[in-house]
Each structure stands twice: as structure tokens, then as C-alpha cells.
Automatic annotation (TrEMBL):
Species of provenance: Flaviaesturariibacter amylovorans
UniProt superkingdom: Bacteria
Name of the protein this chain belongs to: SDR family oxidoreductase
Similarity comment: family membership: Belongs to the short-chain dehydrogenases/reductases (SDR) family.
Record keywords: Oxidoreductase
Pfam families in the record: adh_short
Length: 253
């Protein structure tokens, strides 16, 4: 797929991987739209990347997703790429019971439901175009070997991985391609809780993920496993239970 002259919407684009990807796509000669929940962060992103177009949107909200799709396709009819990047990661202890689960719906809605719903909303517009289009889903190495302190996050990324494979098969023979980008731990603001933040300190820069994403698009590499996430995918094939225990043991250090 060509990596220039596209019009791209990136969810969760005001920081982290989304912002790095916006910068890389702009530099490559694309039009870029980003959305996020925080108006202040979007304003800062606009200051850093003056050519980016911004929209305040909480993708965990169904009406918000519908309004986002209407805005993007109506205001920028040339749009031909959707990057489902928005994500929330929460530490969740099921031993604490249902009280600790209260906010997990937004994690499921943001990480999984939003990507599925937005794909459904944008696909009719993409399929009517006479050019190549793409849906890019950002999953995680934790889709293959889960980390126990963030169980819902891992489950949503595993489900988005599965959805990407199924959607890719459904769209075979059309003008729309489905890419999956699975990074390892990345140094972003995604990791809100202390344990996850400590792990993030070992992570790679979001700019590395952005560069690998553009390479994957250019080479039609529909599944792009970045850095150490390759080890997790390989481990899932060999001895998933053993490596799950090992990963979780290392995570406690």
C-alpha cells in the first residue's frame, strides 16, 4: 500500500503511539486527523503538528463514535485509512470482587468495541472508493501472552487480534486491507498504575512503532509484530503456560 497521499484518522492520536504515527504520516505526505478525549492534549498536539486536524471524541461512547465517523467522512471525503489506536490499560484484581470492575466497561469499549464499531462505520465509505483503503488495528504483544495485572487489557487486545484476522479474510478481494500492529511495552502514558509504569520504563519509544508501521504498510505486511513482541508470539506457539508464568514472574520484579 502506498504510504503517501492518504487521508488518515488516528484514534487516541494526541499522545504516545498515536501522536508519533501522526508525525510520521504527516512527514510522509499524508493528511492526518486525530481524535482524543482531552481537549488540552489535542491542543498541544496541534501546536506540535500544525497541519494535523483534531476532534474531541470519547471513542468509548457509541454516539461519539458515530459523530466522529460522520465528521471525518463528511468533512474529509478522501479519507481512506482508519487507525484504531485508542487504548486504556488498568490494573484489575478480580479478588477484590465486582467493585474493582466498575470502570472496566470503558476499557472494553475503548480497546475493543470502538475498533470494531468504527471499522463497521467507515467500511461502506472505504468500499465505495476507487483507491486503496486500510484499517490499522493496534493490538499488543500481550495479545499472545497475557500479563495478570492487566487482565482486561490483555483480553481486549487478544480479541482485537482475532477480529483483525477475521475482517482481513472478509475483505479479501476488495480495495480495503486490514493491518495489525502489535508492539511490545512502549513508553507512553497508557500505563497509569504504578506496576505497569515500572514496566513501561523498559519499553521502546513510540517513534519506533510509528516507523515500523509505515514499513508494514509499504510492504503489505498485514501483521507487524514489533520488537520484543515477536518473542511473545513465538512463546505462545511453543509453551504458552510456561511463558505466561515466566512473564508474570518477571513483571513482579
Amino acid at each position: 500500500m502506498q504510504t503517501t497521499n492518504n487521508t488518515v484518522l488516528i484514534t487516541g492520536g494526541s499522545s504516545g503511539i498515536g501522536l508519533a504515527l501522526a508525525a510520521a504520516l504527516l512527514e510522509a505526505g499524508n493528511g492526518v486527523l486525530i481524535c482524543g478525549r482531552d481537549e488540552g492534549r489535542l491542543a498541544e498536539a496541534k501546536r506540535q503538528l500544525p497541519r494535523v486536524h483534531t476532534r474531541v471524541c470519547d471513542v468509548s461512547n457509541k454516539a461519539g463514535r458515530e459523530a466522529l465517523a460522520d465528521w471525518a467522512t463528511g468533512s474529509y471525503p478522501a479519507i481512506n485509512m482508519l487507525v484504531n489506536n485508542a487504548g486504556i490499560q488498568r490494573e484489575l484484581d478480580f479478588l477484590a470482587g465486582a467493585a474493582d470492575f466498575n470502570d472496566s466497561e470503558s476499557e472494553i469499549e475503548t480497546n475493543l468495541t470502538a475498533g470494531i464499531h468504527l471499522s463497521a462505520l467507515f467500511l461502506p465509505h472505504f468500499l465505495r472508493q476507487e483507491r486503496e483503503c486500510a484499517i490499522v488495528n493496534v493490538t499488543s504483544g500481550l495479545a499472545f501472552i497475557p500479563l495478570k495485572i492487566v487482565p482486561v487489557y490483555c483480553a481486549t487486545k487478544a480479541a482485537l487480534h482475532s477480529f483483525s484476522m477475521s475482517l482481513r479474510s472478509q475483505l479479501a478481494g476488495t480495495n480495503t486491507r486490514v493491518f495489525e500492529i502489535a508492539p511490545p511495552i512502549v513508553k507512553t502514558g497508557l500505563h497509569r498504575e504504578a506496576k505497569a509504569r515500572r514496566q513501561a520504563e523498559r519499553g521502546i519509544a513510540p517513534e519506533v512503532v510509528a516507523r515500523e508501521t509505515l514499513k508494514a504498510l509499504a510492504k503489505d505486511r498485514y501483521q507487524c509484530i514489533v520488537g520484543q513482541a515477536k518473542s511473545l508470539k513465538g512463546a505462545a506457539r511453543i509453551a504458552p503456560l510456561f511463558f505466561h508464568r515466566l512473564l508474570n514472574k518477571l513483571a513482579t520484579r
